[in-house]
Structure formats: structure tokens, C-alpha cells
Amino acid sequence: MDPRPVVAGPSAARDVEPTERVGRAWTVRFALAWLGLWAAQLAPVQLLLPLQLADVDPAHKVRDFGLVNGAAGLAALIALPMFGALCDRTHSRWGRRRVWVAGGVLVYVVGLLLTGAAGSWVAIAGAWVVAQLGMYAAMAGLTATIADQVPPGQRGTVSAAIYGPQAVGIVLGLGVVTALGGAPRPGYLVLALLLAGTALPWLLRVRDPAATVGHRPGSLAAALGDTWRAPTRHPDYAWAFWGRLLVNLGNALGTTYLLYFLTDGLRVADPEGSLLVLTVVYLVATVAATWVGGVLSDRTGRRRIFVGGAAVLQALACALLVIAPSWPSALSAGLLLGAGYGAYTSVDQALVTQVLPDARTVAGELGVMNVAAVAPQALAPLLASLVIAELGGYGVLFGAAGLITVLGALSVGRIRSVR
């Protein structure tokens, strides 16, 4: 008889779900770790990489930016499920999640320093992939910790500690880089120091017991097989995956080329300063919506309505940029996009943890879900560059982003095991 507790929907792993609420200090340390991860990822994507590529290969900067991020996206397709499965199998005196976070942060720091020192777009691509592999390893440990240690009724609030810092990290990273004059090497160095400093409190204080043999997958091959077969065996898990993939792809298409949109589309006088202002507007809306959405979702016990409504707000932001592209419209769109994405991310993360099929392969299953969150961020620049160059420019790009986001909301609406 197969002893594995594989149960579909929100009842998955109910017999081993945590019941003790995590404290405020735990949540703050968790949020700090994510703050460093997001700042180190998004400040380069939004500013450092575009400026660096414009310097080393100005004639092909759009193509190069797409290829660099595309390489990271392809790495995510392999690394995230693999790292998650390995994390589930890890057995050490320091636990199984913490060692992956520590190792990931170390690799991430090295990758950032290598990226800052790179002198060609090929070297930049290789170094950035190294950095992103570190990000993926750290994500494997951190996201699995929610399912391991946070009770379901608190997951919306704790998930806000992942995505609230995302917006703060963008502004913090952009502010630091802008203050340094946009110079790549010192910018990457400061981001690397910030990453290490914010991860340290969590790594030093987290209690991460090692998994018992009975709660570990029998082998890496079995863990990977179960993980990749889960969408075909558990429809709600599949719908959650497609919803996350589409909403994140729509958001990434709408935000990745903002610097070039401000420069070449709206022709503002100070593109870098305008990007910082726009990002601050996005930040305020995102942080407020992230925490409010997560708390309200926990209190009401409802997930789908918040996810669907948030996706519609993002689609409205894209429509505004298509209908009336201007600086005031960009500010309004930033507010709508931030509110929609903030509410979406915190509640979606909580929803995802409630449709995981197997308690023993939590990190692997979340690794597949993380593909749906990370791969769009990496692949969107490549897709967006094709749309801009071949299909009609930024208006078509924002229209496609809005349509894809709505399709993501419809996918989430198909989930039946979570309210």
C-alpha cells in the first residue's frame, strides 16, 4: 500500500498542517529576507541592466535585454522545480529550508558582483543567470516555510510579507542606484550587501527542524515525477498555476519596458527620475493593497474574489495606457496596477498553499508555482521586445498585457476547492 498522503484541494496535508500562529517578530524577519531578494532582482531589471546594456551595446539594447532575461527565464523552468524537490529531500542538522536560503543568498551575491563586472552582453547574461539561480534556491526554502510553519488562517497576512517588500524593494533599490548615478558596478555591490544584510536575521533565528524520513519523498526522481504530474491529477492546482502564470505575465509585460516607454514612447525630459516617481506611486498602492488584501482574505476566509478583482484592476491600468498614453495616465495606471498587483500577490500565495496535493513535496510543488511567478518576469522582456518591434509598439504591448491578465482571473475563477 502506498503510504503517501495525497489528497486533492484544501484538504491536502490537513493532518500535518501547522496550527500554532507565527509571531510578529518572525513575520518581520521573513519580510526583511524578501526585501533584500526583491531589491537585488528588480532594481537591476528595472534600471541597472537596461543602462548597462545600453552602454555596452547601444544599437541592440532592446534585443539584448530580452535575451538576458530570457536566459534567466529558461533557467527558472529547470531550476525552480529541481531546487524545490531537492529542498524536500534535504536532511541536515540545520534543517532543510534554511540551508537552501543560505546557499541561495551566497550564490546570489556572487552573481550580482559578476554581473557588475561584466563587459559584454553575453557576459552579463551568464552572470545574471548565476544571480538568478541563487534567487531561485532561496525562494525554494522561503516559500516552503509558509506551508511548513504558518497555519492556513494566517497565510494571507504572512504572504503579504513576501509581496509587500517587493514594492519597497523596487523603490529602495532604484533609490540607491539612482543616488550612485546609475553606475553598474557600485550599484550591484550595494545591492549584494543589502541582500546579505537583510537575510541574516532570518537565517540566524529561524527554527527549521529536519524532516523525518516518513515525511520525505522516497527519491529525487519520485519527487520530481509527482511534482510535474500534479497539475494533471489535481485540477485546482492546475487552474491556480495557469492563473498565476497569466496574471504575472500580464503584469510583467506592462512594467518591464517602463524606462524605454518613458524615454521613447512618452519622451519625458527625465526618464530615470520619472521612473522613480512612477515606482513610488506603484509602491504606495502595492504596499497598502498587499496588507489590506491579505488581512481581509484571512478574516473572510475568501481567496478567489480578491484574486479576480485584483487582476481586473491591472487590466484597467493597461487599458488606460492604450487609450490615453501620457504622463498623467501613466501615474494613474501605476496606482491601479500597484493596487491590483498588491492585492493579487498576497492572496494568491495563500490560495496556492491551499491547493498543494502532497504534504511531502511542498517545496517541489511550490517550485512549479514559482515558475509561474518568476518565468514571466524573465521571459516578458523577450516577448515585449518582439511586440514592440514587430506588432505595433507600446499600445499593442499594453493591450496584450491587459487581455492576458483577464484570462488569468478567469483561470482562478475555475478553482472549486477554495472559496
Instruction: Determine and state the CATH class.
Output: Mainly Alpha
CATH topology: Growth Hormone, Chain: A
The CATH H-level homologous superfamily: MFS general substrate transporter like domains
- Helix- and strand-based class? mainly alpha
Q: What is the count of DSSP helices, taking H or I runs of 4+ residues?
A: 14
Question: Runs with pLDDT <50, length 5+?
Answer: 1-15
Q: In percent, how helical is the residue content?
A: over 70%
Shape: globular
CATH-derived architecture? Up-down Bundle
DSSP strand content: under 5%
What is the total domain count?
A: 1
Estimate the mean pLDDT confidence.
84
Give the termini separation.
Answer: 33 Å
Number of strands: 0
Global Rg: 20 Å
Structure description:
It is a single chain. The chain is mainly α. The protein has a single domain (22-205, 223-412), classed as Up-down Bundle (Growth Hormone, Chain: A). The chain has helices spanning 24-56, 61-89, 98-117, 121-149, 155-179, 184-205, 220-233, 235-255, 258-265, 271-300, 304-323, 327-353, 362-390, 394-412. The longest helix is centred in the first third of the chain and has 33 residues, at 24-56.
